[in-house]
From TrEMBL:
The lineage of its organism: Bacteria, Pseudomonadati, Pseudomonadota, Alphaproteobacteria, Hyphomicrobiales. This is Transglutaminase-like enzyme, putative cysteine protease. Keywords: Hydrolase, Protease. It comes from Bradyrhizobium erythrophlei. It holds the Pfam family Transglut_core. GO terms for molecular function: peptidase activity.
Amino acid sequence: MQIRAGYDIAFQCFQETPMVLMLSIEPAREKELLSEHQIQFSPDIPSRNYIDMFGNTCTRIVAPAGLIEMRNDFLISDSGLPDDVAPDARQLAVDELPDDVLIYLLGSRYCDTEKLSNLAWSLFGSVTPGWQRVQAIVDYAHDRICFGYQHARCDRTASEGHEERIGVCRDFAHLAVTLCRCVNIPARYCTGYLGDIGVPVDPAPMDFSAWLEVYLDGRWFTFDARHNHPRIGRIVMARGRDAADVAISTNFGVVQLVRFSVITDEVTRAPASVSKAA
């Protein structure tokens, strides 16, 4: 299957402002692109990419004072298969984990494990380690938090989300990630595109989504505490310890978001506005 994805984002900058953007798809998916994938800036300004410590593509710019517009519109091939389900996947002992996975057991800015550790062990310590334990955690986060865009708050931690019981997809992901780490299951935060493919169309405006990946049986598996069932057509943009590591924009100065729209749709024919890659 083919997916059309992209965005149209604009900021008002009150002065010349350096910015770091995470608006590219993960490098592993680039070979599946069917069209050009490049951030278009208006006005046209220089940019350069680098790969961060988590393997994400980051774009550096210096935005001029005034309006800066960022757009992308691309086609990508997708298997059309839902997220993998592996009920027999086992939880590895900490001493079995690869060195580069250990960081995903530690607390981080929004994943305050020290505040939820006792709760996690009391709720999930007796659950069969592995897939069943992770699913129990995801079920709990899914039921604990009430979704609503009006509940968005950029500084809510996992423990605060647990107490307030409201939030958006990042809050579901932060809570599930934190509870997994508390019981020695490596978990990382993911952000990217997730369209309404194979499910009823959500009437709310499209947005980037957040979910988590959990390390079981020597590989990473996708879980989604907000939707809590396998989905089709995820396109990862970035992964990290929590939302602080994968912000779509980090601004070194005062800016105001003035426009934000995202598209993620299955297509049956290539849109005329998307040019085929050479």
